[in-house]
Design goal:
Layout lengths: L9 E3 H7 L1 H8 L4 E5 L2 E6 L2 H13 L7 H7 L9 H12 L2
Parallel strand pairs: 1-2
Antiparallel strand pairs: 2-3
Protein backbone atom coordinates (compact mmCIF):
# COMPACT_ATOMS: atom_id res chain seq x y z
CA UNK A 1 0.00 0.00 0.00
CA UNK A 2 1.46 3.33 -1.03
CA UNK A 3 1.45 6.20 1.42
CA UNK A 4 -0.01 9.19 -0.48
CA UNK A 5 2.03 11.50 1.78
CA UNK A 6 5.24 10.13 0.21
CA UNK A 7 4.21 11.43 -3.20
CA UNK A 8 3.75 15.11 -3.89
CA UNK A 9 0.62 16.33 -5.64
CA UNK A 10 -1.56 13.22 -5.49
CA UNK A 11 -5.11 12.62 -6.69
CA UNK A 12 -7.00 9.45 -5.88
CA UNK A 13 -9.36 7.86 -8.36
CA UNK A 14 -12.25 8.62 -5.98
CA UNK A 15 -11.37 12.32 -5.90
CA UNK A 16 -10.97 12.37 -9.67
CA UNK A 17 -14.41 10.79 -10.13
CA UNK A 18 -15.95 13.27 -7.71
CA UNK A 19 -14.30 16.47 -8.98
CA UNK A 20 -13.41 15.59 -12.57
CA UNK A 21 -10.96 17.47 -14.76
CA UNK A 22 -11.07 20.49 -12.44
CA UNK A 23 -9.16 18.48 -9.85
CA UNK A 24 -6.41 17.77 -12.38
CA UNK A 25 -6.29 21.37 -13.59
CA UNK A 26 -5.90 22.67 -10.03
CA UNK A 27 -3.30 20.06 -9.12
CA UNK A 28 -1.28 20.77 -12.30
CA UNK A 29 -0.68 24.30 -11.01
CA UNK A 30 1.57 22.64 -8.39
CA UNK A 31 3.39 20.42 -10.92
CA UNK A 32 2.99 16.86 -12.19
CA UNK A 33 -0.01 15.03 -10.72
CA UNK A 34 0.32 11.46 -9.44
CA UNK A 35 -2.88 9.46 -9.85
CA UNK A 36 -3.60 6.66 -7.39
CA UNK A 37 -5.89 3.74 -8.02
CA UNK A 38 -6.59 1.43 -5.06
CA UNK A 39 -3.85 3.29 -3.16
CA UNK A 40 -1.24 2.34 -5.79
CA UNK A 41 0.48 4.70 -8.24
CA UNK A 42 -1.33 4.37 -11.56
CA UNK A 43 -0.27 7.32 -13.72
CA UNK A 44 1.30 10.76 -13.81
CA UNK A 45 -0.35 13.71 -15.55
CA UNK A 46 1.93 16.43 -16.91
CA UNK A 47 1.16 19.86 -18.23
CA UNK A 48 1.61 20.24 -21.98
CA UNK A 49 4.61 22.52 -21.35
CA UNK A 50 6.32 19.99 -19.07
CA UNK A 51 5.61 17.16 -21.53
CA UNK A 52 7.18 19.15 -24.40
CA UNK A 53 10.23 19.91 -22.24
CA UNK A 54 10.69 16.19 -21.63
CA UNK A 55 10.33 15.47 -25.35
CA UNK A 56 12.98 18.08 -26.21
CA UNK A 57 15.30 16.64 -23.57
CA UNK A 58 14.83 13.13 -24.94
CA UNK A 59 15.63 14.33 -28.47
CA UNK A 60 18.80 16.06 -27.24
CA UNK A 61 20.07 12.99 -25.40
CA UNK A 62 23.15 11.63 -27.08
CA UNK A 63 22.49 8.46 -29.00
CA UNK A 64 25.20 5.97 -29.89
CA UNK A 65 26.37 6.18 -33.47
CA UNK A 66 25.60 2.50 -33.97
CA UNK A 67 23.30 0.21 -32.08
CA UNK A 68 24.49 -3.05 -30.57
CA UNK A 69 22.71 -4.96 -33.32
CA UNK A 70 24.35 -2.86 -36.04
CA UNK A 71 27.76 -3.42 -34.42
CA UNK A 72 27.19 -7.18 -34.30
CA UNK A 73 26.10 -7.26 -37.93
CA UNK A 74 29.27 -5.36 -38.96
CA UNK A 75 31.58 -7.98 -37.41
CA UNK A 76 33.43 -10.11 -39.95
CA UNK A 77 32.24 -13.65 -40.33
CA UNK A 78 34.46 -16.48 -39.17
CA UNK A 79 36.34 -18.16 -42.01
CA UNK A 80 34.82 -21.49 -41.01
CA UNK A 81 31.78 -22.20 -38.87
CA UNK A 82 32.62 -23.57 -35.42
CA UNK A 83 30.87 -26.55 -33.96
CA UNK A 84 28.90 -26.29 -30.75
CA UNK A 85 31.48 -28.50 -29.03
CA UNK A 86 34.29 -26.12 -30.06
CA UNK A 87 32.36 -23.08 -28.82
CA UNK A 88 31.53 -24.83 -25.53
CA UNK A 89 35.20 -25.76 -25.03
CA UNK A 90 36.34 -22.18 -25.71
CA UNK A 91 33.78 -20.80 -23.28
CA UNK A 92 34.74 -23.32 -20.62
CA UNK A 93 38.41 -22.34 -21.02
CA UNK A 94 37.56 -18.64 -20.66
CA UNK A 95 35.49 -19.29 -17.55
CA UNK A 96 37.99 -21.61 -15.89
CA UNK A 97 39.43 -19.23 -13.33
Amino acid sequence: MTDPNLLANVLTSAELKRRGIVAIEQALQRGPVHLLKRNQPAAVVLSEQHYRQLQRLAEQTARPETSALEWLLMQPQAPQPRSQATIDAELAAERDW
